[in-house]
Amino acid sequence: MVVMKMKFPFQKRVKLAQGLWLLSWLATVAGALTFTLGCILKTELRRRAEVMDNTEIHAVPNTLMIVGLASLGINYFAGRICQDALDAGKFPRWKNFIKPFFAVSCFFTVLMLLAVIMSYAMKGNLEASLKIGLKNGIRFYKDTDTPGRCFQKQTIDRLQMEFQCCGNTDYRDWFEVQWISNRYLDFSSKEVKDRIKSNVDGRYLVDGVPFSCCNPSSPRPCIQYQLTNNSAHYNYEHQTEELNIYIRGCREALVTYYMGLMNTIGAGVLSVFMIQGSVLVSLRFLQTAMEAVVGQENTEIETEGYLLEKGVKETIMEYMDPVMKFLLLNQVAEGGAAAAGTAPATA
User: Fold this and answer.
1) Residue 37: which of 115, 121, 126 has the closest Cα?
2) Model-level pTM?
3) Measured distance CA(251)–CA(234) in Å, rounded
4) 256 contacts 127 by C-beta, under 8 angstroms
5) Which of 30, 234, 243, 337 is surrounded by the most beta carbons within 10 Å?
6) Could you tell me the end-to-end alpha-carbon distance of the chain, in angstroms, rounded to an integer?
7) Rg, the chain, Cα only
8) CB 88 within 8 A of CB 293
9) pLDDT tens digits, one per residue of 315-337
């Protein structure tokens, strides 16, 4: 069953080829834009790599860069095919190239759509990665003398100031870790001794936060120590008064930032996907319309073009059969090699 059959007079074929040539160049620019967006997202994720536990989220920018580069090649050849479609004598040289070209093009176009879906669906992975990464970042904040962690303090401080956040979930996360190095504690002080003895793990815990949690917009000088002690500060009520430190946790701030970035990129790549899809559909109509002209004396005759010669299922199976046969042959060859390798041993 032929899908979407249309009639194409000579002038309509010419206009289709010319319009498609322009559209292919627009898609080439869109492919370059997709690659650029992937690079931007990759760079932004690498900037915060120290507060991320894994790199699964990098699948999104990696995919965008791959399909962006593939789009450049696909649309270059699409433009060349459109040019030769204007000359019935040149078009037949593409006959053996077009079928694998469409298979590769459809694969990368579907991959582009998959990248769009991933950009919206990776929120859970991103949040889980940041939860563990920020937890470790806060835990190692004090280790400025430890190789591999000496810049952790700077990273966390810059992060909290840039995103106006404090802690992982909120500022209370700092109460649960010793974020002041022993190097800067006076162990002869009774207060320091008492605090360390009162903790099961022998850590120096305080109800305070680093300076980078301070909100410069607050009219009151920053209160970063004894945050839960109302009597330690004049005219201060911890439970009711708006604190002059950042309340929002850094995990929420980073998830909001990255999801906003990925959603924007996803919308842009979805537009590119629609352009790329239009190129492939139009090129398919042009190809099938031009195939009827090949071998004809009168190249200006009216021809028919279609999207699929058979049904969708039959077309998919037609493309999948060679792949499955190739994989089956590989499995048979590997099995034969393994049997040949074990034969001397059994003898």
Assistant:
1) 115
2) 0.79
3) 32
4) no
5) 30
6) 57
7) 31
8) yes
9) 666 666 666 666 676 666 666 66
